[in-house]
Amino acid sequence: MATLAAVDDADPAVRRPHDIIATPGGRSTARMPRPGPKAQAKWLTGSVEHDPEHVIAAAFDQAQARDPQHRRSWVVLVDVARHQLDLIQAEAERRGVNIHIVLDLVHVVEKLWAASRCFHAPADPAAEDWIAVKAARVLRGCGRQTADEIRADRLGRRWSAARARRAGHPQSERSQQHLHLAGASRPCAVSDHNGPGMPWAKER
Predict the structure, then answer these.
(1) Residues of 45-63 as b/e, b for ≥16 C-beta within 10 angstroms?
(2) pLDDT tens-place string over residues 31-61
(3) What dihedral do alpha carbons 29, 30, 32, 34 form, nearest 10°?
(4) Distance between CA atoms of 204 and 201, rounded to whole angstroms?
(5) Would you call 58 helix, strand, or coil by DSSP?
(6) Residues 21, 204: Cα–Cα separation, whole Å
(7) Neighbours of 161 (CB within 10 A)
(8) What pTM does this model have?
(9) Is residue 203 a contact partner of residue 72, using CB atoms and an 8 Å limit?
(10) Is 3 exposed, middle or buried (CB count within 10 Å of its CB: 0-12, 13-18, 19+)?
């Protein structure tokens, strides 16, 4: 499998959760969404031959060349691969640089879609509103609380299903198939960057 990495410069772009995720009912026309960061001087690398460690080290080499004194904010955007996170954290520690890890929002939403099947049928329009509310909470920094709420709701439904079975009213087959998907989210910071990479933020 190929490993890809990118390094770029970007000025900070402060945004609110609803600038990224439309709330149920749609966005208000009174406030326009704030724009996201703009990548500059992008550098890309990738390999199907070398291990991920090699690609990650090359990306850190490029960032180090741009900021040898570590005076800028280093923001690392990743997906949900645990091994990749471990490699990045080990490389940062080896170089003595403080990094801010940001989890790609696309992967968070994928987990929320899977969890939504515990509570909504696949074609239920209410699932989109449920996902939007949960994603907005994650963007507000409440990732752990959101995951806990999903798990608690799942357990509550399991308890209700068990009581229904004892009463002779079995739970639907759809809910039985998808209950195990609920607690997929983890506490994290998020970004709506549309691909893997390591955007390094400029100082103001």
Answers:
(1) beeeeeebeebbbbbbebb
(2) 788 898 999 999 999 999 999 999 999 999 9
(3) -140
(4) 9
(5) helix
(6) 26
(7) 17
(8) 0.69
(9) yes
(10) buried
